[in-house]
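TICKET: design request
STATUS: open
ATTACHED STRUCTURE:
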């Protein structure tokens, strides 16, 4: 038979275990990556831009898309060099994302924070996010400066 002191000790131990389990359940094992919102500017008639927006949303980004019929003026305003231009331009944090850059590369950019104006997939490469279908081609994601200088950031095949 348990005396009063033993009963209280057992009750407190059980309550402590319950509290610890509930606290552990309340904290996710791995907190999701905190990402700044992504703002996309695209031509209203571009279907692949809409697919890239869907790719970014499916990857967990909060995306606001705006239709803009004067994309060249917008790219000029944000300093996107002519040699890296594509169909849409996005802003995330302090960076410009030009074209069909994979979400994983944007995540890496936001983690590493390199000295660059942004990332680009120049042109419209089949097989890049939003450009699925047909025979996929290898492509390179470049980090660019507003001066036009580029370096390879990632390669995809």
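STATUS: resolved
RESOLUTION: sequence designed for all positions
ATTACHED SEQUENCE:
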């Amino acid at each position: 038979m348990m005396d009063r002191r033993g009963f209280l000790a057992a009750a407190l131990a059980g309550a402590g275990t319950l509290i610890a389990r509930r606290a552990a359940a309340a904290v996710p094992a791995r907190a999701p990556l905190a990402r700044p919102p992504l703002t996309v500017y695209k031509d209203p008639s571009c279907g692949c831009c809409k697919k890239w927006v869907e790719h970014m949303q499916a990857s967990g980004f909060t995306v606001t898309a705006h239709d803009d019929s004067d994309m060249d003026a917008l790219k000029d305003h944000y300093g996107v060099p002519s040699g890296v231009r594509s169909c849409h331009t996005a802003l995330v944090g302090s960076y410009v994302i030009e074209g069909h850059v994979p979400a994983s590369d944007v995540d890496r950019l936001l983690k590493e924070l390199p000295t660059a104006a942004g990332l680009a997939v120049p042109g419209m490469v089949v097989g890049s996010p939003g450009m699925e279908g047909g025979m996929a081609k290898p492509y390179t994601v470049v980090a660019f400066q507003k001066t036009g200088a580029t370096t390879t950031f990632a390669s995809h095949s």
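CLOSING REMARK: The two ends are 72 Å apart (CA to CA). Helices lie at 4-26, 47-58, 71-77, 103-112.
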